[in-house]
């Protein structure tokens, strides 16, 4: 049995009946392999299929009620989504769960550059972390002109999002499991599974 610190589970674009099967398999096979202070990140979205909407973030949250929902991360994308809807879906939801109330988390590894540092740093220094800006729960990087004016919004690649998840909730030596993901060339201690 492997003791995983962090598990990432990709559940995008599945109907509720398909989600039920995948979640049941997960809970049977992998639930016990997560360390007590471990975390699970579930990638999901809402979508339409044959005039039926699937609100998988809410549905999945109910199915994982034995875990602590810590946050919902929104990942904007500027690429057209699949499915038919009046408004296109340009986001992915990432549900961030902890197995226990006490869990490992280090936000400093994903902090971003302060865009207001050179403009007002001296006036409100107490408001700024010297390690960088809190990324918040909408993960969208920005570029600026050096005068605190945002000039461009830059979506993160899927690989960058995955990396942010395990960087914040695992240390170098910890084991990580990615379920329903393509291989990522980054760490040696990442295992892969498909459900």
Features:
single chain; 195 residues; alpha/beta; Rossmann fold; six-stranded mixed sheet; two-stranded antiparallel ribbon; 4 helices; 19% helix
Q: What report would you give on this structure?
A:
The two termini are 18 Å apart. Helix 1 packs parallel to helix 2. The radius of gyration is 18 Å and the shape is globular. A 6-stranded mixed β-sheet has the order 5-6-2-1-9-10, with helices on both faces. A two-stranded antiparallel sheet has the order 3-4. Strands 7-8 form a two-stranded antiparallel ribbon. It is built from 4 helices and 10 strands; from the N terminus they run βαβββαββαββαββ. The longest helix has 14 residues, at 16-29. It has 195 residues and is an alpha/beta fold.
Give the helices and strands, then pairings.
Elements: E1 4-10, H1 16-29, E2 34-44, E3 46-49, E4 52-55, H2 56-63, E5 68-76, E6 91-98, H3 117-120, E7 140-144, E8 150-155, H4 158-169, E9 175-179, E10 190-193
Parallel strand pairs: 1-2, 1-9, 9-10
Antiparallel strand pairs: 2-6, 3-4, 5-6, 7-8
Query: Into which percent range does the helicity of residues fall?
Result: 10-25%
* Assembly state of the chains shown: single chain
CATH-defined fold name: Rossmann fold
Largest sheet: 6 strands, mixed
Choose one word for the global shape: globular
Order of strands side by side in the largest beta sheet?
Answer: 5-6-2-1-9-10
Q: Order of helices and strands, N to C?
A: EHEEEHEEHEEHEE
Q: Which residues form runs of ≥5 with pLDDT under 50?
A: none
Our count of domains comes out at 1
At the fourth level of CATH, the homologous superfamily is Vaccinia Virus protein VP39
Count of DSSP-assigned helices: 4
Text of the CATH class: Alpha Beta
The share of residues in extended strands comes to: 25-35%
**Can you count the beta strands?**
10
């Amino acid at each position: 049995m492997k003791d995983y610190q962090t598990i990432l589970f990709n559940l995008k674009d599945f109907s509720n009946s398909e989600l039920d099967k995948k979640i049941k398999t997960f809970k049977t096979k992998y639930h016990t392999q997560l360390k007590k202070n471990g975390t699970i990140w579930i990638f999901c979205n809402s979508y339409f299929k044959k005039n039926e909407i699937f609100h998988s973030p809410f549905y999945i949250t109910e199915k994982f009620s034995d875990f602590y929902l810590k946050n919902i991360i929104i990942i904007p994308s500027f690429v057209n989504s699949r499915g038919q809807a009046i408004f296109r879906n340009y986001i992915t939801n990432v549900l961030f769960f902890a197995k226990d109330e006490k869990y490992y988390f280090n936000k400093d590894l994903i902090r971003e550059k302060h865009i207001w540092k050179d403009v007002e740093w001296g006036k409100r220094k107490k408001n700024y972390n010297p390690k960088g800006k809190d990324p918040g729960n909408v993960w969208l990087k920005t570029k600026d002109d050096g005068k605190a004016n945002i000039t461009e919004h830059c979506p993160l690649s899927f690989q960058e999002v995955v990396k942010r998840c395990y960087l914040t909730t695992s240390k170098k030596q910890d084991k990580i499991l990615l379920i329903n993901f393509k291989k990522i060339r980054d760490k040696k201690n990442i295992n892969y599974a498909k459900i």
